[in-house]
Structures are given as structure tokens and as C-alpha cells.
Amino acid sequence: MTTDWTRRTAAEIADALAAGEVTSAEVTQAHLDRIAAVDGPVHAFLHVDAEGALAQAAESDARRAAGAPLHALDGVPIAVKDVLATDGLPTTCGSKILEGWVPPYDATVVAKLRAAGLPILGKTNMDEFAMGSSTEHSAYGATHNPWDLDRIPGGSGGGSAAAVAAFEAPLALGTDTGGSIRQPGAVTGTVGVKPTYGGVSRYGLVALANSLDQVGPVTRTVLDSALLHELIGGHDPRDSTSIDQPLPPLVEAARQGATGDLSGVKVGIITELSGDGWQAGVMTRFQESVDLLVKAGAEVVEVSCPTFVHALATYYLILPAEASSNLAKFDAMRYGLRVWPAEGASAEEVMRATRDAGFGDEVKRRIILGTYALSSGYYDAYYGTAQKVRTLISRDFEAAFEQVDVLVSPTAPTTAFKLGEKLDDPIAMYLNDLATIPANLAGVPGISVPAGLAAEDGLPVGFQILAPALADDRCYRVGAALEALLLEQWGGPLVPPEENLS
Ligand code: GLN
Questions:
Q1: What is the CATH number of the domain that holds 190?
Q2: Which ligand 1 atom is at minimum distance from the Cα of 131?
Q3: What is the 3-state secondary structure (H, E, C) of 459-474?
Q4: What is the CA(180)–ligand 1 centre distance, in A?
Q5: Which backbone phi and psi does 345 adopt, to 5 degrees?
Q6: Total structural domains in the chain?
């Protein structure tokens, strides 16, 4: 096995730490060196905390030497999306309006990382307030896809996905409101999981749309996601939407799946999530993966979810409505930026000038949309109708899951597009989330697993697996089986060519 620790999976690093083959200090330093070497061109990180990470690594090593590691992942470094509050570390949400803001507390998921002893390497780049599918809406410059630096790494969590794909971190946290973990996973060839809504605490996650947001793992293997998911998941009294019941056994499900046996599992291909407009190479890889599931013993049928065609429109009413109200708190009085338009300006003038200077175009666009959808006279027609369609989408899922155990589709309609290609066309940008949004609207879990490279451009394709709420274990079982069969076929993981990174 390679001695380049950045090339190992989190599970392998954990084993090596346990066996005394390496120290957390060495592993953490290797990742910091990798960040120093490649993050110039990739720009996955907004903030690197070398000193903090090495101090946490030293503590981890001391604990282990004393025979008392805190968790299986104690000492394995991780990167955190910059939308999660980190005590003592800047948290900008990719926005100028929060430049320089250092939260006085940790998000629950971050507190869990620290309590388990994972050194935090830094904060990863993202579309401003998690609005976007390309990370180009970051106020601090775009992240570049390690597979091709001229292309987008997906969004909004392109930083976390690129960091993991480029071996800058073995693990990362992302957030998925409409696809921001799964779609970046698809286009960077990494694994991304959106847990069941309420399965992972949102406390300390700067809200984009509270009823849709969910924190989840970004990794290179299905098993690593299961390990991280079990660590961050579970009930949190600080989040009123957190589910008060234990998670299903995710690591066990991943290990079971890795045997490659899916007999007894019924898989439904979602009719509405393919067809016209889907890249041919994406569909080819998708179909090949479906064939592998059949080979593993799964029964595959086609299932129609007719209301899914309205998911995008529904999402783009509900999300802006919630976002416009969430972002009202950035008023120059409480956090971050404050712009004085003139001496003696009124509070209203300061707020206006600050929000004008501090928010980017996409954020403003959604605040305007959301405010309009919620305004009296329009509320019933827009927001109210969207909520009704949301219920219909949930019912389509319920009906589908009466027929099958999991639903599958390609994660995104295309591979990574060129930077700048869709920046001036919001609708084209929104269309990337066609296949990921229904899960957020219904609160069900989903995983994106790398399914190979599209023939026409050599870029990664993602395979999405969706399960009923609270049955996240099914995503891991089927995901791990697919991964095992694909790795056998490829003879090892597909990784971005090193010469692309300079
Ligand atoms: N790309 C979607 C959007 O722009 C998803 C965002 C997300 O999941 N945070 O809203």
C-alpha cells in the first residue's frame, strides 16, 4: 500500500493509526503539504488552519499513546464547508457580508468532530450562502475541478468535493439543500451523501432554506461516508427538526453491500429523470451501473414519479422564500460587514448600503424572488401552491417506495461544464439540480457514487441512489455494492490525472 498518506481512504488511515504505523501529526502534515502544493490552482479552501490542525493532531497522538483514542476516526483530518460555524475559525459562507466574522461557537456537527478528535484542516469554498451549482458564486473566486481546471467542481459545495478529489483531505463536510453535496460529488468523482432530513443536526449551519438544508459527508469511498455519517448524525436537542431516534447501522450496511450481493433488493429507475437533454455519456455510464446492480442480484424495474417534473419550479419558490427571510439577519448591525454610505447615515441607509455591497447577484436575485413569492396577494399563488406540489412530490416518493427499496437516477444531467459557461444564465445553472432536488423537497436520503467517466469528455459521472426517510442504510448498502463492482472492473479508483493539477 502507498506510503503517501493523502492517497489513503479515511478508513485506511484510521487502521494505520490504530496499528501504530503512522501518527496523526504525520497524516495531517501530509495533507497540509498537499494543500500547499495544489490548492493554488484548485482553490478548494477559503481558510487553512495549519496550526490548529497540527495542535489537534498532536493531542490525538498523545491520547492514542496513552491508549485512549476517542473514536475510530480520532486523528483523521477533515475539511469543513464554510457555511458551518467553527469556534475561532472564520466562517464566511462564501460571502463578503461575513468577511472576517469568527463565530463564538461550533455547529453541533463541528463539535462532534472535535469531540471525536478529527483535526480540522480548514474551511472550504462554496457558492455564496450555498446558492449555486458551480462554486462560481463565491465572493472569493471559483474553485476549479481537479479533473480539468477549466471546469466547475459543482456547487454549492465545490470546495469540499474538490478538496477530497484532489487528495487535500480524506474527508469533508458539505451541506445539501438542493444537491450541493451530491452534484459536486458527481462531477468530481467523489462520494456525497444527503442524509434523511433531521438525521444530522443543523444547529450552527448558516441556514439557506431550513426545511431543505442537511449536513452530510463528502469522501472518496462509500465506507468513509458511512463512518463520517455515523459520527455526525443523531439527535440534537438544539435543532427542533432533529429526529429523536437512533440512526440505522450505516457502516454495517456499507460493509454488507461491499460483498457485492444485492439479492432481494428491488431497485426502481425513475422514468422522469432521464431522457432528452441528458448527456449521452452520462446515460451510458448510468445504464452500465444499473446492469451491475442486476448482476449483483437486484431486481430492477422502472418507476414513474410524475410530479418530479415540477420539482425544480417548486424548489425555486420555496427556497428563495425561506432564504429571503433567513438572510434578513445580515443587516450590518449584528455580524460582519458594515458600510457607511455617508457620515451621519441612518440605520436604514447603512443596512441598504451594506446589503448592496455585501451580497452578490445570485443572492440578491433570490431575495427578490422570495420576497415577491411571499408578498400579500401573491403568497397563495406562488408559495402556497409550491407547498402543495411539494406534498405531491412526497406522495410520489411514498408510492414509489411501496414498489421498490431504492430509486436510482444519474446524479446530474451532464458532466462538469466549463467555468463561465452558465454564469449568465440562471435557469441553465438551476437545471443541474433536476435530479437531486426531489429528495430535498421530500426529506429523503440520497447518495451519489462515482460511476465512471463519460466517453465524450473523460469526465466523472455520478450515480444517485435514493431511499425512504430513515432508511439511509439502503443508500449505503446499494452504493457500496455498486462501488465494489465498479472498482473490480476498473482495477482501482479513478483519480484525476496528477498533471492536471498544475
Ligand atoms: N444548486 C442548488 C441551488 O442553487 C442547491 C444548493 C444547495 O444544495 N445548497 O439552490
A1: 3.90.1300.10
A2: 4
A3: CEEEEEEECCCCCHHH
A4: 5
A5: -65, 150
A6: 2
Ligand 1 mutation pick, 135, 361, 433, 437, max ligand atoms within 8 A of CB: 433
The pLDDT assigned to 3 comes to 83
Of ligand 1's listed atoms, the one at least distance from the Cα of 208 is 9
Instruction: Kindly state whether residues 114 and 246 are assigned to the same domain.
Output: yes
Residue 192 CA to residue 172 CA, distance in Å, equals: 10
- Residues across the chain: 502
Same domain, 316 and 456: no
**Whole domain around residue 415: which residue ranges?**
5-308+391-501
136 shares a domain with 151: yes
What's residue 502's pLDDT? 74
Same domain, 319 and 433: no
Q: What is the pLDDT of residue 275?
A: 81
Annotated active-site residue 502? The verdict is no
Residues 258 and 347 in one domain: no
Q: Which residues contact 370 (CB under 8 A, 6 or more apart)?
A: 319, 320, 321, 322, 323, 324, 325
* 263 classed as catalytic: no
CB count, 10 Å around CB of 80?
32
Residue type, 125: N
Same domain assignment for residues 429 and 375: no
Q: Is 81 a catalytic residue?
A: yes
Q: What is the pLDDT of residue 447?
A: 99
Q: Does residue 319 share a domain with residue 296?
A: no
Active-site choice (134, 156, 160, 324): 156
One domain for residues 302 and 358: no
Segments in the chain below pLDDT 50: none
Exposed/middle/buried for residue 28 (C-beta within 10 Å: 0-12, 13-18, 19+): buried
Q: Which residues contact 18 (CB under 8 A, 6 or more apart)?
A: 69, 72
Q: What is the pTM of this model?
A: 0.98
Residues 124-145: tens digit of each pLDDT: 999 999 999 999 999 999 999 9
Q: How far apart are CA 407 and CA 224, in angstroms?
A: 22
Say whether 216 sits in a helix, a strand or coil: strand
Instruction: Name the domain boundary from 364, 390, 416.
Output: 390
Q: What pLDDT is recorded for position 335?
A: 83
pLDDT in tens, 329-379: 999 998 889 999 999 999 999 999 999 999 999 999 999 999 999 998 888
Pick the last residue of a domain from 350, 375, 390.
Answer: 390
